[in-house]
Amino acid sequence: MQPGDESTEAQAVRERYARRLPQDPRYSLLNPAALLAFQERQRAMLALFKRLGWADLSALKLLEVGSGTGSNLVECVLMGFAPEHLSGIELLPERHAMARARLPEAVSLAQGDALVLMPAAGSADIVLQSTVFSSLLDDAFQQRLAAAMWVAVKPGGGVLWYDFTVDNPRNRDVRGVPLRRVQALFPQARVQAQRVTLAPPIARAVSRLHPSLYTVFNALPPLRTHLLCWIAKDR
Questions:
Q1: What is the pLDDT of residues 22-43, one digit of tens each?
Q2: Is 3 within a domain?
């Protein structure tokens, strides 16, 4: 694939995103259910970094594949990553433009197909993907993207994965990615996984009654729909 080319699956992703609401209020942090899920994921990520022994996040290079409007990279800056060590690749130009407007200039952002724009081998300590693979319905494309992400990771680093595991019967444009699929996408890796995020329909229903009920229901692992994985590349 040459610069300027775009895969069939990337074109299909453009069409799927065009069918979505531009500003879905369900995912606004003004919605208690969305805020609680965001905070839970943030705590889980920071706990993971601590377990990995990372005392200084500013020394690590992180690439996000599917960086969207920049929300995750903003979060990374707040966590302590240095802007000059952050980069992102986003397929959709309107989302890329929003990210560019909100992020520091030191953050490197590219717009286009990640298979074309993936940086050099071993260039990142962390390659992050957040709810990208659940929007990819072509198995072969998933495998090619996973392989490209793996190449970009330095030995001793890894892929940081956050995505949901169950299908949404109301949305045929997405599908869940279970743990066995994650392991198949990265056969050479050591995968550490934990279930997080109360099922969004349940979270919205119980949070309307009282936000504290999110924690109560989330204490039941079968009600959690997402995986947070550290997909480690040995030195």
A1: 677 888 999 999 999 999 999 9
A2: no
Nearest to 90 by CA among 111, 104, 73, 72: 111
Q: What is the dihedral of CA 184, 186, 192, 198, to 10 degrees?
A: -60
Judge whether 126 and 186 are in contact, CB under 8 Å: no
Q: What does the CA dihedral 44, 46, 52, 53 come to, rounded to 10 degrees?
A: -150
> Residue 112's closest CA among 219, 190, 208, 13?
13
Residue 1 within any structural domain of the chain: no
How many other CB atoms are found less than 10 A from the CB of residue 146? 25
- How far the first Cα of the chain sits from its last, in Å, is 29
Domain membership flag for residue 116: yes
Q: pLDDT tens-digit profile of 88-143?
A: 999 999 999 999 999 999 999 999 999 999 999 999 999 999 999 999 999 999 99
Residue pair 123/152 in contact by the 8 Å Cβ criterion: yes
Model pTM above 0.90: yes
Give me the domain span that covers residue 64: 8-232
The CB density around residue 1, as the number of other CB atoms within 10 Å, is 10
Number of domains in the chain: 1
Indicate the range of 169-173, 183-187, 188-192, 224-228 predicted with least confidence: 169-173
Q: Is 220 helix (H, G, I), strand (E, B) or coil?
A: coil
2 lies in some domain: no
Within 8 A by CB and 6+ apart from 113, the residues are 1, 5, 6, 7, 10, 91
